[in-house]
Design a protein that fits this description.
Blueprint (H helix, E strand, L loop, with lengths): L2 H10 L15 E13 L6 E9 L1 H5 L12 E9 L2 E10 L2 E11 L3 E12 L2 E15 L2
Antiparallel strand pairs: 1-2, 1-7, 3-4, 4-5, 5-6, 6-7
Length: 141
Amino acid sequence: MPFRSLLAAAVLALPLAAMADTPNIVPGQWQFTSTTSVKGDMPIPDQTETHQECIVQGDLDDEEFQLIEEEEGCELLEHNVSADGVDYRMVCRAEGGEANIDGRMAFLGERVEGGVDILTESPMGELEMHTAIDGERLGDC
């Protein structure tokens, strides 16, 4: 997997395993939008991605539930999870590069919002990335 793809996947990884409480997320059809800005030596335009998924109560009750799948090559270093959100720190390694990731997501019932900051060291040099993530419940599945 290319290093850039690995970083994009890491931005979206939102591990919720080992939750003591059910996330404050209303089941239904959800739309998630992430906008990534990059600072570095190479000019890279902002990138926005949107996807939808159906989240049912059984998903939220499952302690193995993850909003979005984690990718190989990433290691979760720390995570603090509650019904109202998650803070996490992880590292991803690929193709001789490393990305240090700090993320926060707030669960607000019919909305989620948060951000992810990534600092990478790669053969292309150092890059700083910030991704803003917003999600909203669209209705029933």
